[in-house]
Amino acid sequence: MTVENAPLDPVSAAIVDCGLVAVLRAPTTDGFAAVADVLIAAGVTALEVTLTSRGALDSIAGLRRQLPDTVMIGAGTVLTEDDAKAAVDAGAAFLVAPVSGLGPQSVPLYPGAFTPTEVYTAQQSGAPIVKLFPAGGLGPGYLKDLRGPLPGVRIMPTGGIGLDDIAKWLAAGAVAVGLGGPLIGDAATGGSLTALAARARHAVDAVTYARS
């Protein structure tokens, strides 16, 4: 059985089913609750709160109370074991790191990787999904080439991916994509929630199109 065909844990399976992880990053988390409501109404059901945002742990806990259990709330930019523990204690259902190196966790961990060796090492460590980061400068062709020798690795490209790139990445073999600025824009800092809703619907429609 290949890694790709191996059973996924429920959280990772839900993320793959959605096809998108909305990356919430801002100087503060004050606007994250309103942003989350808009994203979920549009069909985005996996949210990553980056620990570089002031108040991230309180935001994770608040979103967990606010949102239904069908919405996956995770922590991003997890760099240390202390970060991981604090995020899980706050209610994070998954952890995302820009690099590899963290040990096994009590929730799914998606480590960052860039080269074939890093991707393979992350997968061999037991990661259910590997975050290809930063992916924007590589392009979907890189992922297609990577999946030649590594067909069984579930990969989630993140970083610099535009809305119009979603379908291309999924067609190249991504199981999901992580979307930050191109999706969230300035909505978390007072920008238009109406514009956010339109971008979120565009993103969800792109996943549907790619998988149809």
From TrEMBL:
Keyword RNA-binding in record: no
Q: Note the Pfam families from the entry.
A: Aldolase
Keyword annotations from UniProtKB, A to Z: Carbohydrate metabolism, Lyase
Q: Which domain of life is it from?
A: Bacteria
Which GO-annotated molecular functions does the record name?
lyase activity
Q: What SUPFAM superfamilies does this protein map onto?
A: Aldolase
The keyword DNA repair belongs to this UniProt entry's keyword annotation: no
Q: Which InterPro entries match?
A: Aldlse_KDPG_KHG, Aldolase_TIM, KDPG/KHG_AS_2
Q: In which pathway does it act?
A: Carbohydrate acid metabolism
Q: Which PANTHER family match?
A: 2-DEHYDRO-3-DEOXY-6-PHOSPHOGALACTONATE ALDOLASE-RELATED (PTHR30246:SF1), 2-KETO-3-DEOXY-6-PHOSPHOGLUCONATE ALDOLASE (PTHR30246)
Record-stated family: Belongs to the KHG/KDPG aldolase family.
Protein name listed in UniProt: 2-dehydro-3-deoxyphosphogluconate aldolase/(4S)-4-hydroxy-2-oxoglutarate aldolase
Q: What organism is listed for this UniProt entry?
A: Actinoplanes italicus
